[in-house]
Design brief:
The protein is mainly α and 634 residues long. The N terminus is likely disordered. It is globular, with a radius of gyration of 29 Å. The relative contact order is 0.06.
Length: 634
């Protein structure tokens, strides 16, 4: 087995004891490299030993290679100079420390445009590609990665208006463009046009782009093809590339656990092509990746062995850069134990080390790790540990508040953790009884002792509430007023939607909740009923968990009363288009357009800002006629 540590006595107790608990078992399996070579791996792609004579790739740097550039004609030189100018402009705009690289949306658009121009220049001209250096190619691929991450962050930013029904076509086109550019770069690399300057750093960055775009077929096609090429195999089987490929291959069932380990064993002692001499035989990032695979596979002993190897690497690192690399690898593997380890004693041990700041390094406790841990704990019905992890996380994030400048990001943390906790709680207590009711009261009291109740917290409780008891539901909704919580439109939608799962709720209850939602929209000076509010009404009536004819009729009556309060004609078209996809319900919606409305008395409330913006019947009729004509022509 890959194991640098031979015995517990040989460890540095003062350091390693901070992570490994006294009762955590060590691996008792001894594996030898020869045993991996004798495995039947007929389904694995061929694995080549590094025998390439390819020249070592140049180091990565944003500056252009001028001394090593091949001879070129005047036209190609002019193209290269133009490319270098565009590249430098994009680098300046990307540098967050540069005063020209401002953070506004307008400047972000300029930044994306400059990067996209560099990528397009790279893709458009084969003559230009032949004279680019490894640094140039790396910058092209890294800008592709930046575009993917940056555009998604922009679309998901808290500044976006979630209630705006108008479809953002630019977001869709942007995603399509990103996919096309990523595919085209991959094709250029796969054709071998950049082989002379290719290095592991470029390949790793390209694989990261493909991973972000969920292009697994292209990713593994690129990798599996190039490891069969003698000159390319050393690059594509390099340690930093394997650190990305192996976890992806294992998680997508491309490799079995033992196959991943075989590839690791065959390459863990081989230096990456062009790499500078290092104190590490095996790259810490590869050790961390294999540790993550081991944890995901349930081989916790082997994962802990790799974790201890990283700790020893940290101790033996002499320079700051090496220590930083090991620390990042340690943090990643530490969080994986919290996220994926089903042995709750080990997972909670790693969790406690983070929240108690009892480590020689400082991992960022990610909310998805905590949410996964809470789910794993609930599967073992350990409420005490569930509450311990939940409150420890809330307290820990509160201590970090001063470091978080984005309030929306901070509230998102609490919301994700609270949502995971109450989902786990109601899974453990699916029925309302004296015990479950008392536990819920104790939990709410416990939260109030540590943090003031806010809308996010109450929203999470109501969203996950599954007892379907009207009395308890009313008590939860009353918490907004009882604790003086300022409500946003989101809370009204959640309360309205939840009525769909409560059989005791009457049509009058639904109308009252709907009217409250409309009044909040009016108070917020919204001029139309957003799609999210129509969806909440639909889920509480016609799509209720236990639908009744009365609720269906109520939905149709309310739709008829407020049908003209859509944002614009495009919103009406999308509304009708979505119902067309539900053939069981579409005739009912078409009936509303034709005036076939159930005799349910609905009194429209007085509103100031909400108003009629469209002629719903006129727009909907055109769509319905086209559908009928299409159906008849079949």
């Amino acid at each position: 087995m890959f194991r640098l540590i031979q015995a517990q006595a040989g460890l540095r107790p003062a350091l390693l004891s901070k992570v490994r608990g006294q009762n955590v078992p060590r691996s008792g399996v001894t594996l030898q490299q020869g045993s991996f070579r004798s495995l039947n791996v007929a389904n694995l792609p061929p694995v080549h030993e590094p025998k390439s004579t390819v020249a070592p790739p140049r180091s990565l740097d944003p500056r252009p290679d001028k001394l090593d550039a091949p001879r070129m004609d005047w036209d190609t030189k002019a193209k290269l100079n133009h490319f270098q100018d565009c590249l430098q402009e994009a680098i300046v705009l990307q540098d967050r420390h540069n005063p020209r690289a401002k953070r506004s949306s307008h400047d972000a658009a300029k930044r994306f445009e400059a990067m996209q121009r560099v990528i397009e220049l790279f893709l458009e001209d084969g003559d230009l590609r032949r004279v680019l250096s490894s640094r140039n190619v790396f910058n092209v691929v890294s800008m592709m990665r930046y575009l993917i991450k940056g555009s998604r962050d922009a679309r998901l930013s808290g500044s976006k208006n979630r209630d705006k029904d108008q479809r953002s076509r630019s977001a869709y086109v942007d995603e399509a463009t990103l996919s096309l550019l990523t595919q085209q770069i991959t094709e250029v690399i796969n054709r071998g046009e950049c082989n002379a300057v290719l290095n592991p750093g470029i390949v790793k960055m390209l694989i990261s782009c493909l991973q972000e775009m969920n292009m697994d077929r292209e990713l593994f096609g690129l990798w599996e093809y190039n490891i069969t090429l003698q000159d390319m195999a050393p690059i594509y089987m390099s340690q930093i590339v394997l650190a990305t490929v192996l976890p992806l291959g294992y998680s997508s069932n491309r490799f079995t656990y033992e196959q991943a380990w075989q590839i690791f064993e065959l390459n863990k002692d081989t230096p990456d092509p062009g790499s500078t001499p290092s104190a590490f035989t095996t790259d810490p990032r590869l050790l961390s990746s294999m540790g993550q695979i081991a944890v995901s596979a349930g081989d916790y002993s082997r994962g802990l062995d790799l974790f201890e190897s990283l700790l020893q690497s940290y101790e033996t690192s002499s320079d700051h850069q090496s220590k930083s690399m090991v620390l990042r690898a340690l943090c990643t593997l530490h969080l994986e134990f919290i996220r994926s380890c089903k042995d709750i004693s080990i997972a909670s041990h790693f969790f406690d080390k983070v929240v108690n700041n009892d480590l020689p390094y400082r991992p960022l406790l990610k909310v998805d790790c905590v949410a996964s841990l809470l789910t794993n704990i609930s599967a073992q019905n350990n409420l005490d540990l569930l509450k311990h992890v939940w409150m420890k996380t809330i307290t820990y994030y509160q201590s970090e508040e001063a470091k978080v400048h984005n309030a929306q990001a901070l509230y998102s943390r609490y919301s994700v953790v609270n949502n995971a906790f109450f989902k786990a709680f109601f899974a453990m207590y699916p029925q309302l009884n004296d015990e479950s009711s008392a536990e819920l009261r104790d939990i709410l009291s416990l939260y109030q002792e540590n943090r003031k109740l806010d809308e996010y917290m109450v929203n999470n409780v109501i969203s996950n509430y599954s007892w379907n008891d009207k009395r308890v539901y009313d008590q939860l909704v009353m918490m907004y007023d009882s604790f003086g919580i300022d409500r946003t439109q989101v809370s009204y939608r959640i309360a309205l939607k939840k009525l769909g799962s409560i059989p005791e709720a009457s049509c009058a209850d639904i109308v009252a909740s709907w009217n409250q939602s409309l009044r909040q929209l009016d108070a917020d000076r919204i001029k139309y009923i957003p799609v999210a509010d129509w969806a909440a009404l639909r889920d509480s009536t016609i799509f209720a968990a236990a639908p009744t004819q009365e609720r269906t009729d109520l939905y149709l009556a309310l739709l008829h009363a407020y049908r003209n309060y859509q944002q614009d004609n495009s919103a009406v078209k999308r509304f009708i288009g979505n119902w067309i996809k539900s053939p069981d319900y579409f005739p009912l919606i078409a009936g509303v357009v034709d005036g076939k409305v159930p005799p349910v008395p609905v009194e429209k409330i007085a509103l100031t800002n909400l108003k009629e913006n469209v002629d719903f019947n006129s727009v909907a009729n055109e769509i319905i006629k086209r559908k009928k004509s299409k159906d008849q022509s079949r």
